[in-house]
Amino acid sequence: MSVPAPTTTEPRAPEQTFGTAGIAPMDRPSAMTRFFMGIVAWAESLNLKYAKLGNPPVYDNATFPWAAEIEKDYPAIRAELEKVLLRQSELPTFQDISTDVKTISTDSRWKTFFLLGFGVKSEQNIKACPNTWAAVQKIPGLKTAMFSIFEPGKHLPAHRGPYNGVLRLHVGLIVPEPNDQLAIRVDRQVCHWQEGKALIFDDAYEHEAWNHTDKTRVVLFVDFVKPLKFPARVVNWALMNLAIFTPFIREGLDNHKEWEKKFYAEAEALRNRPKA
Protein backbone atom coordinates (compact mmCIF):
# COMPACT_ATOMS: atom_id res chain seq x y z
CA MET A 1 0.00 0.00 0.00
CA SER A 2 1.42 3.36 -0.96
CA VAL A 3 1.80 6.21 1.50
CA PRO A 4 0.03 9.34 0.25
CA ALA A 5 1.68 12.72 0.37
CA PRO A 6 0.72 14.70 3.47
CA THR A 7 -2.00 17.28 3.00
CA THR A 8 -2.62 20.53 4.80
CA THR A 9 -5.22 23.24 4.82
CA GLU A 10 -2.86 26.01 5.89
CA PRO A 11 0.60 26.69 4.47
CA ARG A 12 3.41 26.83 6.95
CA ALA A 13 7.16 27.34 6.80
CA PRO A 14 9.37 24.26 7.24
CA GLU A 15 10.48 23.87 10.83
CA GLN A 16 13.23 21.92 12.53
CA THR A 17 11.81 20.81 15.85
CA PHE A 18 14.90 19.14 17.37
CA GLY A 19 12.80 16.06 18.12
CA THR A 20 10.26 13.70 16.62
CA ALA A 21 7.02 12.67 18.32
CA GLY A 22 6.61 8.96 18.96
CA ILE A 23 10.30 8.06 18.60
CA ALA A 24 12.23 7.15 21.73
CA PRO A 25 15.33 9.31 22.31
CA MET A 26 18.78 7.79 22.16
CA ASP A 27 19.64 6.50 25.61
CA ARG A 28 23.18 7.63 26.40
CA PRO A 29 23.34 8.28 30.15
CA SER A 30 27.06 9.05 30.53
CA ALA A 31 27.97 12.49 31.87
CA MET A 32 30.32 13.03 28.91
CA THR A 33 27.55 12.40 26.41
CA ARG A 34 25.01 14.59 28.24
CA PHE A 35 27.53 17.42 28.23
CA PHE A 36 28.29 16.90 24.54
CA MET A 37 24.60 16.85 23.60
CA GLY A 38 24.06 20.12 25.45
CA ILE A 39 26.71 21.71 23.25
CA VAL A 40 25.09 20.11 20.20
CA ALA A 41 21.75 21.75 21.00
CA TRP A 42 23.44 25.16 21.18
CA ALA A 43 25.35 24.51 17.95
CA GLU A 44 22.15 23.53 16.13
CA SER A 45 20.63 26.93 16.86
CA LEU A 46 23.76 28.57 15.43
CA ASN A 47 23.58 26.38 12.33
CA LEU A 48 20.03 27.48 11.63
CA LYS A 49 20.89 31.15 12.07
CA TYR A 50 24.13 31.16 10.04
CA ALA A 51 23.28 28.74 7.22
CA LYS A 52 24.82 30.02 3.96
CA LEU A 53 22.09 28.52 1.79
CA GLY A 54 19.12 28.86 4.12
CA ASN A 55 17.40 25.88 5.71
CA PRO A 56 15.11 24.22 3.14
CA PRO A 57 14.11 20.60 3.77
CA VAL A 58 15.08 19.64 0.18
CA TYR A 59 17.68 21.46 -1.92
CA ASP A 60 17.79 22.22 -5.63
CA ASN A 61 20.64 20.07 -6.99
CA ALA A 62 21.95 23.09 -8.90
CA THR A 63 22.91 24.57 -5.52
CA PHE A 64 25.76 22.05 -5.39
CA PRO A 65 27.58 21.88 -8.76
CA TRP A 66 29.40 18.69 -7.77
CA ALA A 67 26.08 16.80 -7.69
CA ALA A 68 26.05 16.60 -11.50
CA GLU A 69 29.55 15.12 -11.42
CA ILE A 70 28.44 12.39 -9.02
CA GLU A 71 25.51 11.56 -11.30
CA LYS A 72 27.93 11.01 -14.19
CA ASP A 73 29.66 8.33 -12.12
CA TYR A 74 26.45 6.33 -11.72
CA PRO A 75 27.37 3.49 -14.16
CA ALA A 76 30.70 2.79 -12.41
CA ILE A 77 29.13 2.99 -8.95
CA ARG A 78 26.26 0.71 -9.98
CA ALA A 79 28.72 -1.89 -11.32
CA GLU A 80 30.56 -2.00 -7.98
CA LEU A 81 27.29 -2.22 -6.08
CA GLU A 82 26.25 -5.26 -8.11
CA LYS A 83 29.36 -7.10 -6.87
CA VAL A 84 28.64 -6.10 -3.26
CA LEU A 85 25.08 -7.41 -3.54
CA LEU A 86 26.35 -10.89 -4.42
CA ARG A 87 26.79 -11.23 -0.63
CA GLN A 88 23.72 -9.18 0.32
CA SER A 89 22.59 -11.66 2.98
CA GLU A 90 25.92 -11.20 4.81
CA LEU A 91 25.78 -7.41 4.95
CA PRO A 92 25.09 -5.85 8.35
CA THR A 93 21.85 -4.16 9.25
CA PHE A 94 22.18 -0.53 10.22
CA GLN A 95 21.42 -1.34 13.85
CA ASP A 96 24.18 -3.98 13.85
CA ILE A 97 26.61 -1.11 13.37
CA SER A 98 24.85 1.68 15.27
CA THR A 99 22.74 0.15 18.04
CA ASP A 100 20.91 3.45 18.63
CA VAL A 101 19.12 2.90 15.32
CA LYS A 102 17.03 0.27 17.13
CA THR A 103 14.79 3.17 18.14
CA ILE A 104 13.57 3.30 14.52
CA SER A 105 14.55 -0.04 12.95
CA THR A 106 14.64 -3.52 14.48
CA ASP A 107 14.15 -5.85 11.50
CA SER A 108 16.78 -7.09 9.03
CA ARG A 109 15.55 -5.19 5.95
CA TRP A 110 17.83 -2.12 6.16
CA LYS A 111 21.37 -3.14 5.31
CA THR A 112 24.51 -1.09 4.82
CA PHE A 113 27.94 -1.18 3.22
CA PHE A 114 30.12 1.58 4.65
CA LEU A 115 33.04 3.23 2.89
CA LEU A 116 33.36 6.06 5.40
CA GLY A 117 31.76 6.57 8.79
CA PHE A 118 32.15 9.88 10.62
CA GLY A 119 35.46 10.50 8.87
CA VAL A 120 36.90 7.00 9.50
CA LYS A 121 37.59 4.89 6.41
CA SER A 122 36.73 1.23 5.82
CA GLU A 123 39.86 0.36 3.88
CA GLN A 124 38.64 -3.07 2.81
CA ASN A 125 35.31 -1.77 1.52
CA ILE A 126 37.04 1.09 -0.28
CA LYS A 127 39.35 -1.42 -1.95
CA ALA A 128 36.27 -3.30 -3.16
CA CYS A 129 34.66 -0.10 -4.55
CA PRO A 130 37.46 2.20 -5.81
CA ASN A 131 35.29 4.01 -8.37
CA THR A 132 32.63 4.78 -5.78
CA TRP A 133 35.31 6.07 -3.42
CA ALA A 134 36.78 8.26 -6.16
CA ALA A 135 33.32 9.67 -6.88
CA VAL A 136 32.52 10.69 -3.31
CA GLN A 137 35.91 12.42 -3.01
CA LYS A 138 34.38 15.16 -5.17
CA ILE A 139 32.03 16.13 -2.32
CA PRO A 140 33.31 18.99 -0.12
CA GLY A 141 33.08 18.22 3.58
CA LEU A 142 32.47 14.49 3.09
CA LYS A 143 31.74 12.76 6.42
CA THR A 144 29.87 9.51 5.71
CA ALA A 145 29.49 7.40 2.57
CA MET A 146 27.79 4.04 2.19
CA PHE A 147 25.33 1.96 0.20
CA SER A 148 21.93 2.06 1.92
CA ILE A 149 19.91 -1.04 1.07
CA PHE A 150 16.14 -1.15 1.65
CA GLU A 151 14.82 -4.65 1.13
CA PRO A 152 11.18 -5.27 0.10
CA GLY A 153 8.59 -4.08 2.61
CA LYS A 154 10.94 -1.83 4.59
CA HIS A 155 9.35 1.27 6.13
CA LEU A 156 11.51 3.58 8.21
CA PRO A 157 9.22 5.58 10.51
CA ALA A 158 9.29 9.33 10.97
CA HIS A 159 12.47 10.48 12.69
CA ARG A 160 15.10 13.18 12.50
CA GLY A 161 18.88 13.05 12.30
CA PRO A 162 20.95 13.62 15.45
CA TYR A 163 22.55 16.89 14.28
CA ASN A 164 21.83 19.61 11.73
CA GLY A 165 25.45 20.40 10.90
CA VAL A 166 25.40 18.04 7.93
CA LEU A 167 23.27 17.60 4.82
CA ARG A 168 22.43 14.29 3.15
CA LEU A 169 22.85 13.14 -0.44
CA HIS A 170 21.07 10.12 -1.92
CA VAL A 171 21.94 8.91 -5.42
CA GLY A 172 19.48 6.36 -6.74
CA LEU A 173 21.35 3.18 -7.73
CA ILE A 174 18.62 0.53 -7.84
CA VAL A 175 15.11 1.97 -7.87
CA PRO A 176 12.39 -0.62 -8.61
CA GLU A 177 8.92 0.01 -9.93
CA PRO A 178 6.20 0.97 -9.30
CA ASN A 179 7.44 4.43 -8.45
CA ASP A 180 4.49 5.30 -6.21
CA GLN A 181 5.37 2.43 -3.86
CA LEU A 182 8.81 3.81 -3.07
CA ALA A 183 9.59 7.23 -1.63
CA ILE A 184 11.04 9.42 1.10
CA ARG A 185 9.13 12.20 2.84
CA VAL A 186 11.15 15.15 4.16
CA ASP A 187 8.99 17.51 6.23
CA ARG A 188 5.94 17.80 3.93
CA GLN A 189 7.69 17.05 0.65
CA VAL A 190 7.47 13.52 -0.79
CA CYS A 191 10.40 12.71 -3.09
CA HIS A 192 10.92 9.74 -5.39
CA TRP A 193 14.38 8.38 -6.12
CA GLN A 194 15.54 8.00 -9.73
CA GLU A 195 18.40 5.83 -10.87
CA GLY A 196 21.48 7.95 -11.50
CA LYS A 197 19.91 11.07 -10.00
CA ALA A 198 20.86 12.97 -6.86
CA LEU A 199 18.54 14.00 -4.03
CA ILE A 200 19.92 16.42 -1.43
CA PHE A 201 18.03 17.09 1.78
CA ASP A 202 18.39 18.09 5.42
CA ASP A 203 17.85 15.04 7.61
CA ALA A 204 17.38 17.27 10.67
CA TYR A 205 13.80 17.70 9.45
CA GLU A 206 11.36 14.95 10.27
CA HIS A 207 11.57 12.37 7.50
CA GLU A 208 10.50 8.82 6.74
CA ALA A 209 11.19 6.40 3.90
CA TRP A 210 9.51 3.31 2.52
CA ASN A 211 9.92 0.52 -0.01
CA HIS A 212 6.57 -1.18 -0.55
CA THR A 213 7.70 -2.90 -3.76
CA ASP A 214 8.76 -6.54 -3.97
CA LYS A 215 12.36 -5.67 -4.95
CA THR A 216 15.40 -4.16 -3.24
CA ARG A 217 16.08 -0.41 -3.37
CA VAL A 218 19.65 0.89 -3.04
CA VAL A 219 20.99 4.43 -2.83
CA LEU A 220 24.44 5.89 -2.38
CA PHE A 221 24.04 7.56 1.03
CA VAL A 222 26.35 10.47 1.88
CA ASP A 223 26.52 13.01 4.69
CA PHE A 224 28.53 16.18 4.07
CA VAL A 225 29.16 19.32 6.08
CA LYS A 226 26.43 21.93 5.78
CA PRO A 227 27.72 25.24 4.32
CA LEU A 228 27.76 27.72 7.22
CA LYS A 229 28.92 31.25 7.95
CA PHE A 230 31.13 32.32 10.85
CA PRO A 231 30.85 31.64 13.80
CA ALA A 232 28.71 28.53 13.21
CA ARG A 233 31.28 27.19 10.73
CA VAL A 234 33.99 27.10 13.42
CA VAL A 235 31.74 25.52 16.06
CA ASN A 236 30.54 22.93 13.57
CA TRP A 237 34.11 22.06 12.58
CA ALA A 238 35.02 21.53 16.24
CA LEU A 239 32.01 19.30 16.90
CA MET A 240 32.68 17.19 13.82
CA ASN A 241 36.20 16.53 15.02
CA LEU A 242 35.16 15.81 18.61
CA ALA A 243 32.30 13.48 17.69
CA ILE A 244 34.58 10.52 17.10
CA PHE A 245 35.41 10.48 20.82
CA THR A 246 31.80 10.00 21.94
CA PRO A 247 30.60 6.51 22.99
CA PHE A 248 27.90 6.65 20.29
CA ILE A 249 30.44 6.96 17.48
CA ARG A 250 33.14 4.75 19.01
CA GLU A 251 30.70 1.88 19.46
CA GLY A 252 29.58 2.08 15.83
CA LEU A 253 33.16 2.11 14.55
CA ASP A 254 34.08 -0.88 16.71
CA ASN A 255 31.02 -2.81 15.54
CA HIS A 256 31.86 -2.14 11.92
CA LYS A 257 35.47 -3.18 12.41
CA GLU A 258 34.34 -6.54 13.83
CA TRP A 259 31.91 -7.12 10.95
CA GLU A 260 34.52 -6.15 8.37
CA LYS A 261 37.07 -8.57 9.84
CA LYS A 262 34.63 -11.48 9.68
CA PHE A 263 33.26 -10.60 6.23
CA TYR A 264 36.65 -10.47 4.52
CA ALA A 265 38.03 -13.47 6.41
CA GLU A 266 35.17 -15.55 5.01
CA ALA A 267 35.82 -14.21 1.51
CA GLU A 268 39.50 -15.14 1.80
CA ALA A 269 38.63 -18.63 3.03
CA LEU A 270 36.38 -19.17 0.02
CA ARG A 271 39.11 -18.04 -2.37
CA ASN A 272 41.62 -20.42 -0.79
CA ARG A 273 39.31 -23.42 -0.59
CA PRO A 274 40.75 -26.39 -2.55
CA LYS A 275 38.91 -27.05 -5.77
CA ALA A 276 37.20 -30.44 -6.11
UniProtKB/TrEMBL annotation:
GO MF annotation: an example: dioxygenase activity
Domain Aspartyl/asparaginy/proline hydroxylase as annotated: residue spans: 71-227
Entry keywords, A to Z: Dioxygenase, Oxidoreductase
Gene3D superfamilies in UniProt: B-lactam Antibiotic, Isopenicillin N Synthase, Chain (2.60.120.330)
Biased composition (Low complexity): 1-17
Region feature (Disordered): 1-21
Keyword Oxidoreductase listed: yes
This enzyme's EC code(s): 1.14.11.-
A Gene Ontology term for the protein's cellular component: membrane
Membership in a protein family: Belongs to the aspartyl/asparaginyl beta-hydroxylase family.
Protein name: Beta-hydroxylase
Organism this protein belongs to: Rhizobium paranaense
